[in-house]
Amino acid sequence: MNNAALQYAAVRVAERPDHLAPRILYIVGEGNDRFCAAMLCPCGCGADLYMSLVVGDDPSWRARAHRDGTASLSPSVARTTGCRSHFVLRQGRVVWCTPQTPRGRRSRRFWERARAAFLR
Ligand SMILES: [Zn+2]
Description:
Layout: E1 9-13, E2 24-30, E3 33-40, E4 48-52, E5 62-65, E6 71-78, E7 86-90, E8 93-96, H1 108-119
Parallel strand pairs: 1-2
Antiparallel strand pairs: 2-3, 3-4, 5-6, 6-7, 7-8
Residues 41, 43, 45, 47, 83, 85 line the site of zinc ion (ZN).
């Protein structure tokens, strides 16, 4: 399997897509105006994640499309509902942050689901 094909790719779009595909970070905007970034939650829960790219919004993120086509998103995305995933996207790779669960560890099922979502 080609590892490069399993990274998150940055895709520029003019409007927010109705349907989000796995392993794509959509950067929504026109020209130099970037409105938001959209992606499926990498844990596999199926949630659509939308992050504002508008400077001055609170919170807001910075999205980058690298020359190799991969995407970066910072700062980290921390869901406060549902799966409570907390991750950062760095050059196409999902870097998971310390879990915010009381137990402090993610279950094996979580990782299996995340891996399955990534390979989809
Ligand atoms: Zn999730």
